[in-house]
Write a structure and sequence with these properties.
Strand content: 25-35%
Number of domains: 1
Distance between the termini: 33 Å
Helix content: 25-40%
Mean pLDDT: 93
Shape: globular
Number of strands: 8
CATH class: Alpha Beta
Radius of gyration: 14 Å
CATH topology: Alpha-Beta Plaits
CATH architecture: 2-Layer Sandwich
Largest sheet: 6 strands, antiparallel
Structural class: alpha+beta
Low-confidence stretches: none
């Protein structure tokens, strides 16, 4: 079993329900959820003219290959009615493969670790909650260290 960290986000529809449904579907697709962060309400990043997101990070274990995991996450996004109209725009569900063990992969369709982790508090804050000592395999810094030096000023609030 490989340890994976996945980032989940939603800003359309019932955001909390979308996250819960994604967790159920991840289990069905072969990702055993080991730990999950709290849910955070986060200011949109990239495309700003949209509603705020609910974000969370999960630690999972899977026998799926990275490519199979990507297929699974995309199938779950489709099942939850994600439509890509605007790059970084509104979506019912976004699932990013943040880490797949300590693997480094750079293919056009899949980059692991996910690009931009060190620059986004919407990922670092929930990831730090469940894996502060996990070391980024390229940057060679822990998640806690990356969060302490992150210059992102976008708002990330713990959701009640």
């Amino acid at each position: 079993m490989k340890k994976v960290y996945l980032g989940l986000g939603s800003n359309l529809g019932d955001r909390g329900r979308n996250l819960q449904e994604a967790l159920v579907l991840l289990e069905r697709w072969g990702v055993k959820i080991v730990r999950s962060s709290s849910i955070y309400e986060t200011e949109p990043w990239g495309y700003l003219d949209q509603d705020w997101f609910f974000n969370m990070v999960v630690e999972g274990e899977t026998e799926l290959s990275p490519e199979e995991l990507l297929q699974a996450t995309q199938a779950i996004e489709r099942a939850l009615k994600r439509v890509k109209k605007i790059h970084l725009g509104p979506r019912t569900m976004d699932i990013d493969i943040l880490f797949y063990g300590d693997m480094v992969m750079d293919k056009p369709e899949l980059k692991i670790p996910h690009h931009g982790i060190a620059d986004r508090k919407s990922v670092l804050v929930p990831l730090n909650e469940i894996a502060p000592d996990f070391v980024h395999p390229i940057l060679k810094k822990s998640i806690g260290e990356l969060l302490s030096t992150c210059s992102d000023t976008f708002i990330v609030n713990l959701h009640d």
